[in-house]
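Action item from last week, closing it out:
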Amino acid sequence: MMRNNLRAIRDSFPSEIMSNIILGGQDGLVNTFGVILGVAAASGDIRVVIAGGLAACFAESISMGAVAYTSQRAKHDHYLAQLEKAESGISKSPAKKKAEVKEIYKGKGFVGKELEKITSLITSNRKAWLSTLTTDGAKVAPISRRDVNINSIIVFFSALLGSLVPIIPFFFLALKEGIYLSFILSSLTLFLLGFYKGKLTTGKPGRNGLEMLLIGLSAAILGYAIGYVFSAKV
């Protein structure tokens, strides 16, 4: 029953939203994980580890949210520009734009009367005409301003939650035990994120889980190595 409910929730989410959740969570976790282990190795002070981890957490989350906003906003502006271009083209040269629709559907395999019929049907509806010229012709996916805001907020909070995973153990445990538990929680979370990403995309969840785990472990090992080099002990 629970598995069916989880599957229903997953299927009700648009794939782009799930991609943004995974992207933000993965990026936030990997970066903060590396920073925390580096600070832990360099300082040996749990207060410094928590401070450094929280600083990395919020800096990473804000950065990811801002990058998502600007990139999505650029897509939105590009879509509006292509839509305006198509609108202008239909108004000034309807025959030319009708011929473009015909070429689009000819490329999809339509011929003869079928091609003439679908071209006539599409160009009889201005909204469908514009959509065909932008989405199929210019290869620009429609994106609204609302989608831009929602996607950037999702990335921000996903990065924030992902960043908190390696930090939480240090609030409850000593430094050494915190490092161990942080390593276990972060590794498990990365594998599950990769596993789920694989189910959504490549269909190879196990391989994707291992790939994401290796990426996280690489960041952790590098962070710890850098911290160790600059540690007071050395």
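Closing note: The first helix runs from residue 2 to 12.
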